[in-house]
Amino acid sequence: MDLSVTSTELTTDAAISTSASAATGASVFIPAPGTPYQEDIARYWDREARPVNLRLGDVDGLYHHHYGIGDIDRTALGDADDSAYEKKLIAELHRLESAQAELLLDHLGPLERDNTLVDAGCGRGGSMVMAHQRFGCEVEGVTLSAKQASFANQRARELGIGDHVHARVCDMLGTPFETGQIAASWNNESSMYVDLHDLFAEHARVLAAGGRYVTITGCWNPRYGQPSKWVSQINAHFECNIHSRREYLRAMADNRLVPQAVIDLTAATLPYWGLRATSPLVTGIEEAFINSYKDGSFQYLLIAADRV
Ligand SMILES: C[S@@+](CC[C@H](N)C(=O)[O-])C[C@H]1O[C@@H](n2cnc3c(N)ncnc32)[C@H](O)[C@@H]1O
Ligand SMILES: CC(C)=CCC/C(C)=C/COP(=O)(O)OP(=O)(O)O
Ligand SMILES: [Mg+2]
Q1: How far is the CA of 210 from the centre of ligand 3 (A)?
Q2: Closest by CA position to 177, among listed 116, 225, 250, 134
Q3: Does the Cβ of 23 fall within 6 Å of ligand 1?
Q4: Which ligand is nearest to the CA of 237?
Q5: Does the Cβ of 123 fall within 6 Å of ligand 1?
């Protein structure tokens, strides 16, 4: 796959990026061809249009491809017999997904307005918009999907922040960003598509010394022994490769990323899954998440690390 010709956004970048982004060095960047696996993943996200993602994003224009945390606000949901219940349910699921992104951002700061941030595996860009709105920083996102990059850039333009929030089609393992120029970077549910040593080597390269890396991810629990049947089902459903908690910590240690916080969000994400399982937007993967979180084979984790 030649990523340089699949993205109109990338072509546009090449023309304007010299003045726009010295930190990214994007003007001369031509991504290497992807692997066959990456072609499959690019196709997957190019075609994705699940109502559980689009209808939630429509609530306030922040489009996420991650899950939610926090307690359900039963008062906001109201009565299940109410004709407005479905709309309220969608708003509540969306609120929990945005709360997840807010927690990730809590661990990125403090940051200065002139900092540049990197969202590795940025999806439709919801977290990037939130990061810019909170910190005022430049936010650079990478995704394998040209559709997602276009969508994210279109949303940023509509919000009037297109000069500050920008997505491109690019492998997160080989980004165009200059070495040591990025103040903070993150993976929000996107690290299960790559080798963790390669991933953290790239984050460690682009991050400034003292910079911050944050991930929220689902990982299998070494205490369970091996990936459970539920974890295998999630892998098959999304064509991904969920890593163990041990692999995360080892690959970080090997790449100058020192954890400052490791937070088990498993209990915090279960209410989201319980509510989603009762909704008309179910996709069929709910049972695997709920059962694997409950049997201890799978964990929802935030890891915040310093680049030392
Ligand atoms: C589940 S979505 C998460 C999107 C986003 N982080 C969010 O929270 O909404 C996974 C994302 O990872 C991206 N991805 C997977 N492998 C990638 C790679 N090698 N390089 C760049 N992006 C990748 C996909 O294109 C997709 O945008
Ligand atoms: C925690 C783990 C293992 C995540 C795997 C990556 C993934 C597909 C996240 C959600 O995307 P989505 O929002 O497009 O999925 P869905 O359609 O199920 O909401
Ligand atoms: Mg979703």
Answers
A1: 32
A2: 116
A3: no
A4: 2
A5: yes
- Tell whether ligand 2 has an atom less than 6 A from the beta carbon of residue 203: no
Instruction: Using the mean position of ligand 3's atoms as its centre, give its distance from the Cα of residue 251 in Å.
Output: 27
Tell me if 299 CB under 6 Å of ligand 1: no
pLDDT digits (tens, 9 = 90+) for 64-106: 999 999 999 999 999 999 999 999 999 999 999 999 999 999 9
Q: Ligand 1 pocket, 244 CB below 6 A?
A: no
Backbone angles phi and psi of 303, in degrees to 5: -125, 125
For the stretch 140-185, pLDDT in tens is 999 999 999 999 999 999 999 999 999 999 999 999 999 999 999 9
Which residues, in sequence order, are bridge partners of residue 186?
119, 214
Residue type, 275: L
Nearest CA to ligand 2 atom 13: 65
What does the block give as tokens for 22?
């010295």
Q: What would the pLDDT profile of 205-248 be if each residue is shown by its tens digit? A: 999 999 999 999 999 999 999 999 999 999 999 999 999 999 99
Please give the pLDDT value at position 30.
66
* Residue 177 DSSP symbol: P
Ligand 2 atom 4: the closest Cα is on which residue?
189
Where does residue 284 fall: left (phi above 0), alpha (psi -120 to 50 degrees), or beta otherwise? left
CA–centroid distance, 221 to ligand 2, in Å, is: 18
In terms of DSSP H, where are the helices of 159-265? 196-206, 229-238, 245-253
**List of residues 6+ apart from 270 with CB closer than 8 A:** 290, 293, 294
pLDDT at 109: 82
ipTM of the complex in this document: 0.99
Those residues with Cβ within 8 angstroms of residue 194's Cβ, 6 or more apart along the chain or in another chain? 172, 173
286 lines ligand 2 (CB under 6 A): no
